[in-house]
C-alpha cells in the first residue's frame, strides 16, 4: 500500500536534465542523497539559463504610416531612456522638413481648391522662395527658409486650405496641427526638440531599426520594420524566436488610398496584411497584439466622412462605438486565431502608450521548454494564473513531499532538499514590466 501510493505520485514525473525522477523516488537513501544534489544543480542551472537567455524579442509590424515608429519611441521614453544630443539634432532637422513639405502641399493646394489669394508682395516673395527651394537637393534647410514658416502659416488663406486638407491630392501628416501650434517655439534660434516634438515627427522607415531596452531581469529587443510593400518580403527573416508581434493599424485610414498605387484602400490593405501575419505558421506560438491606432483622428473623421461610402458592408449608425466595432471585426475575422489583445490607441498620447504592453506578460511566454516539460503532470487548471516562481515552488513542494515519504525512517535523510533560491529565480511580472500599469482594458 505504501509503495503503491508512491507509485501513483511519481508515474507521471518526467526525466529532467538526464535525471529520472521516478528512479530517485524508489532508489536507495544513499543514492537519493547523491542525486538530490544533482537535482539542485539542475534547477540552479535552469535559473541561470533563464537569466542568460532572458531576452524578449518584440516585432513591430504594420502598413506604412500606421504609427509603428512612434510607438517604439513612446515605449523607449516610457523606460526613461532619453534621446541623445545627436538624436535630437537629427530629429530637429526632420521636424523642419515635416513642416516644410506640409507648407509646400498647402501652397500647391491653393489652386486645387480655387482659393485665389490676393497676395501681398511679402507673401508672394515668401511663397516663391519656398517653391524654388523645393527643387533643391538639400537635406538640411537653411535658416532663412525656416524663418519663413510662421510668416506663411499666419496667412488666412493658408489656414483655410489647411482646414480643407482632406480635399487635397497630397496627404498632410496628421501631427501638423501640433507643429503649427508650436511654430513660434520651433522656429526660435535656440530651439531644442522636446520629447513630444520627437514623438510627433514622421519619417518613412526604409529599413530595420533595432531598439534595446533593459529592465532588472530582461532585455527587450524591439524591431521596427518598414511597412511599405517593397519592404514586406524581408519581414519573415525576423519571425524566428519572436515573443510577441505588435501589429499597428491606423483605424483612421479607411478613406485613404495606398501611396504606392493610389488604388488600394489603406484599411483593406492593412486587414489583409494582418491576416497574413496572424495566420503565419512561424508565428503560431507568438503573442499577437493589435493596435487600432490614431483614434484621435478617427473620432473627428467619422463626424464628416461616412464609412459606408468606402465600406458598403457597414450599415450601422455613424457613432464611435459602432464604427470601432466594425473595423475591429474586420481584423478579427481575417484570422483563425483567437484575438485576446486588441487596443484602441493614440500614439502621441504618452500616458496611454505607457500601458499597452500588458499582454506580453503571458504566462506561457515566461516558461521555457524545460520548465513546461518538468511540469507536464499538472493540469492546465492548476497552473492557470500562476507566475513562474509560484509554479516552481509548487514543483519543489511536490518532490520534497515524495522524497520525505520515501525516506521518512532513515537517519541519514537531510531536510535540505531541492530548493530554488527565491532571489535568483524570482521572475515576477512586476519586475520585468515595472513600467506598465495593470489597469489597461483589452477589447
UniProtKB/TrEMBL annotation:
Binding-site list for GTP: 224-228, 293-296
UniProt key word Electron transport: no
BP-aspect Gene Ontology terms: adenylate cyclase-modulating G protein-coupled receptor signaling pathway
Binding site residues for Mg(2+): 69, 205
A cellular component term, taken from the record's GO annotations: heterotrimeric G-protein complex
CDD domains: G-alpha
Gene Ontology MF terms in the entry: G protein-coupled receptor binding; G-protein beta/gamma-subunit complex binding; GTP binding; GTPase activity; metal ion binding
Key words, A-Z: GTP-binding, Magnesium, Metal-binding, Nucleotide-binding, Transducer
Domain of life: Eukaryota
Pfam families: G-alpha
UniProt-listed PANTHER family: GTP-BINDING PROTEIN ALPHA SUBUNIT, GUANINE NUCLEOTIDE-BINDING PROTEIN SUBUNIT ALPHA HOMOLOG
Protein's recorded name: Guanine nucleotide-binding protein subunit alpha
Gene this protein is translated from: GPA1_8
Amino acid at each position: 500500500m505504501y509503495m503503491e501510493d508512491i507509485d501513483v505520485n511519481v508515474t507521471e514525473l518526467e526525466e529532467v536534465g538526464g535525471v529520472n525522477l521516478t528512479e530517485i523516488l524508489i532508489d536507495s537513501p544513499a543514492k537519493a542523497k547523491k542525486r538530490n544534489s544533482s537535482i539542485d544543480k539542475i534547477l540552479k542551472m535552469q535559473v541561470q539559463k533563464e537569466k542568460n537567455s532572458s531576452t524578449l524579442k518584440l516585432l513591430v509590424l504594420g502598413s506604412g504610416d500606421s504609427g509603428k515608429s512612434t510607438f517604439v519611441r513612446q515605449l523607449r521614453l516610457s523606460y526613461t531612456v532619453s534621446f541623445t544630443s545627436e538624436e535630437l539634432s537629427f530629429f530637429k532637422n526632420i521636424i523642419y522638413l515635416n513642416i516644410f513639405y506640409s507648407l509646400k502641399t498647402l501652397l500647391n493646394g491653393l489652386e486645387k481648391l480655387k482659393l485665389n489669394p490676393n497676395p501681398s508682395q511679402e507673401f508672394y516673395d515668401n511663397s516663391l522662395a519656398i517653391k524654388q527651394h523645393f527643387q533643391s537637393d538639400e537635406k538640411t534647410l537653411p535658416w532663412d527658409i525656416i524663418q519663413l514658416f510662421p510668416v506663411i502659416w499666419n496667412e488666412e488663406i493658408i489656414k483655410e486650405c489647411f482646414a480643407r486638407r482632406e480635399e487635397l491630392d497630397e496627404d498632410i501628416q496628421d501631427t501638423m496641427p501640433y507643429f503649427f501650434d508650436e511654430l513660434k517655439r520651433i522656429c526660435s534660434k535656440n530651439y531644442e526638440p522636446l520629447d513630444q516634438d520627437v514623438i510627433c515627427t514622421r519619417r518613412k522607415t526604409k529599413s530595420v531599426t533595432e531598439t534595446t531596452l533593459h529592465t532588472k531581469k530582461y532585455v527587450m529587443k524591439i524591431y521596427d520594420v518598414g511597412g511599405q510593400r517593397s519592404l514586406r518580403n524581408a519581414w519573415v527573416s525576423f519571425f524566428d524566436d519572436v515573443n510577441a508581434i505588435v501589429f499597428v493599424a491606423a483605424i483612421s485610414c479607411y478613406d485613404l488610398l495606398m501611396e504606392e498605387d493610389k488604388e488600394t484602400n489603406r484599411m483593406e490593405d492593412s486587414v489583409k496584411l494582418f491576416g497574413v501575419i496572424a495566420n503565419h505558421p512561424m508565428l503560431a506560438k507568438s503573442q499577437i497584439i493589435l493596435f487600432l491606432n490614431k483614434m484621435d483622428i478617427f473620432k473627428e473623421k467619422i463626424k464628416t466622412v461616412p464609412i459606408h461610402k468606402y465600406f458598403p458592408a457597414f450599415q450601422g449608425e455613424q457613432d464611435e462605438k459602432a464604427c470601432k466595432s466594425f473595423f475591429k471585426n474586420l481584423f478579427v475575422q481575417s484570422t483563425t486565431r483567437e484575438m485576446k489583445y486588441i487596443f484602441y490607441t493614440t500614439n502621441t498620447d504618452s500616458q496611454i502608450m505607457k500601458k499597452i504592453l500588458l499582454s506580453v506578460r503571458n504566462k506561457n511566454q515566461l516558461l521555457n521548454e524545460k520548465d513546461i516539460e518538468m511540469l507536464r503532470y499538472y493540469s492546465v487548471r492548476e497552473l492557470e494564473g500562476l507566475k513562474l516562481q509560484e509554479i516552481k515552488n509548487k514543483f519543489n513542494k511536490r518532490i520534497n513531499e515524495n522524497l520525505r515519504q520515501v525516506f521518512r525512517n532513515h537517519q541519514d535523510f537531510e531536510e535540505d532538499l531541492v530548493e530554488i533560491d527565491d532571489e535568483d529565480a524570482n521572475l515576477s511580472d512586476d519586475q520585468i514590466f515595472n513600467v506598465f500599469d495593470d489597469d489597461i482594458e483589452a477589447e
